[in-house]
## 1
Amino acid sequence: MFSMSPRELKRMLKKMGIDIEEYSDVDRVEIFLKNKKLVVTNPQVVAFKTGGQVAFQISGVVREEEVSAQPSPQQPVAEEVKIPEEDIRFVMEQTGASYEEARKALVNSKGDIIQAILAIKSSKG
């Protein structure tokens, strides 16, 4: 197997249309999965950029952590949708739905009256 210096490798990849960027100031990398988090400490991070895509190579010490039920500061907290009473009444009139059904449909559609009406009508068949 032949050896190639990092500089030669960069030059060869550049000719193939792949740019390489090394990140030297990375302290840690966190990858969030549905029920756990992977934490890479003291990582070496390299980005390969080609055709509008970026692929990362990350190496270092990896450990798994459980994800708490509480949202972390980086995760957005869902805003409560404020539904005007007149919108609820309008959806009720148009669909014959109860107050709670109309309100729920409006909340699910983030206040979009048309979507709420369509959702109620499609659920009633």
## 2
Amino acid sequence: MTVVALVAFVMIIGIGWIVSVVRRTRRSADSVAAGLNLLEIELDRRRAVIPDLVRAAVDADLDRAAVNQLVGARSLSAMMRDRRAELGARAGAENALSVALHEVLFDGRASGPLGWDFSSPATELDRIEHRVAGAVRVYNTQASSLASLADSPLSGPVVRLLGVRAPEVFAETADADTAWLRAPQHAA
């Protein structure tokens, strides 16, 4: 009777552990999806406010090259999202947008006092940039948590049985495939 009780006890512990891994995996996957959704919302909000800043920067005669760079970076960011590029490539485009945005904001603030048409979107974009940074931290933390769960030798098989894969983090990668961005070369 003690052997049967021991086997039953081990089976109950094993089933309980599997159930806890399944719950943790589903909760982590839901958190990753929510974190990515939050990040998408903030990035879309930033892309929506930038045209107001561009109009104000053009009206204020700010450095045209910096403004053009901002417009190009915004277009690249939108194109990467529309084409559902990998997160590493999208992070690179979003970083380029942030750099161009901060350059225009710095030029505008350094040129002296500007009207509300510049300061209003500039202030809003400062707030959005902070929220984007926070959303990236939230997503990357959740993605790393799920990745560690999927890569664990104990919980990994259960996670793979559920069909959950380790998500990418939202960080610029040096090996991001951007070959499709280059213009085709024509033979002379």
## 3
Amino acid sequence: MLIGRHSFIRQNKLSDVAGRIDYISNPKRQEHLYATYQTEGATPEFWKNLARENQLDFKTSGTAGKCIEGREFIIALPESFVEFKADDVVRLFTDSFHKRYGVECSAALHHNKKMTNYHIHLVFSERKMLEHPEVKIATRNMFYDEQGKHRRTKKEILDEQGKLRAGCSIIPKGEVYESHIFTKKDEWFKSDAFTREVKEMFTEIINSHVKEESEKLSVFQQGGVYLATKKIGKNNPKEAEIRADNVARQEWNRTVDVALVEGVPEEDILTVKREKITDKTLQSIRTHGWLPDMFQQIIRGAKDFLQEMIFKFKLPPKPVPKIDLQEWKDMRKLMEKLQKQSQSIKSTQQEISLLKKQLSETTGFFKGKVRKSLKGKIEQAEKQEKHIHTDMEQTVKQAGYPDVQSFAKTYQKSEKLVREYNEELQAWENQTEPKKEQSSEPPKKASIRGKLHRYQQESRQQPKQTVKKKSMDREQ
């Protein structure tokens, strides 16, 4: 598949989930805010309680760094989505996520300041509400040291000047000092597999609503033939470096597209990527450290190598059947119809033979009525046989053949030609599959179509001959 356009769906960790939700959904803070949407339980109180419990658990764990209170997906949308009602768009993506993962969500639909990026921010919780929450209220002031451990007296968390030591905290009487409102964090939300699953789900939703085939997106395949480009964030001091890096990556990706179109196997492209980019980059880093210019040179060197491979690569052209396939299909349909009629004639003939045998065995003075009934059935069956045969003759005449015999001869010769072509095509595929670099001449079938038409013309021009009734059944 050619590179086309990849979907942009990024996951972020949130250390201030309530603040983030306010930022994405507050009209005073967003110049181009079109719609917001929350699942039923995603109230401000929910996010406040979620943040509090996450912070308490984080402090108790003693883990370094920042507490992750929630997570967010940023989903870039095709510009054609502006044609849809904004409320419907944000609801579609949010409800799809909520239905699949069962966690509360808050979302907003924006344009950036330059009006070039139509996107959704979807904030979600890693935890679910417990059916029976456990909340403990402080009956007196509660004191906690730097490790989040409870201390009996305030004196234990003060410094020599009597001030609260950094990292220590006091929970006033009447406030929650311990709560278990939520389940534990779902570890699945931290995995790469989850992120990829969500990207595929949202990409599928996008593709099911775009009108133009050119707008359809695909999820970038890590470890594939292409090189991913990097997003340039706001005020990034390495903007020039990233931009130059992306140019080199795009040059490689365009060359990959040409290679795929020319028939270079993906396995060969992956080998070039691994040996000429991945391995050389690792070697360069070990020797010189990270040098952006060196990485770009490595990519361009790999691109040049791949271009040379394209020039040298010769994939034999796949044989194109010269036979009129539609005409052959029509003949097949006609033969199937005749075979059904032939089968009906055979069944009727068997019935007539059985009735005649019964008639010959029915003797005696008192069997007159039975003999009369059998004779009537025989007469009816013989009429049916003649009727079916007449239909058979009319069928071939309507197709342009003088009689069944002429069509049968034409069909058998044409079938032989088609079988020969299929055998030659299979032989060519067997020859080219294991070693594609060796060019071979495709089977020459230019004469097949001419022969087929000649057979048909000959049969259709033959004078009508008397043909004995015989079955058209044949072994397949």
## 4
Amino acid sequence: MTFRLFPLLAALGLAVFASNAGADTLLMERTQKEAGMSMPTRGMTMAQVESRYGAPLSKLDPRGGGKPQHPVINRWEYDNFIVYFERSHVIDSVAKRADSNEIGPKSRH
């Protein structure tokens, strides 16, 4: 009985490993593609971003700003990424997630 169970468990383990390896490859490919994607960089002004990338699809409601320790954060949404501004300067740009299984900002459209 245990002799027949071992090949079944080995095959099951191999199948799980193979499916995870495929997912890792896709995520690695997407990460490499994003590295080559042109996105706004830290320190750019709102005017520079709009001049270089055009008008955003939407300008999301600002957050924060109640105290000096909590400056206003603005978010602009483009086709493939979202830009985060502290006051009027870029602090980060984040690529949108490709599918519903990924972790990252969702598209609002």
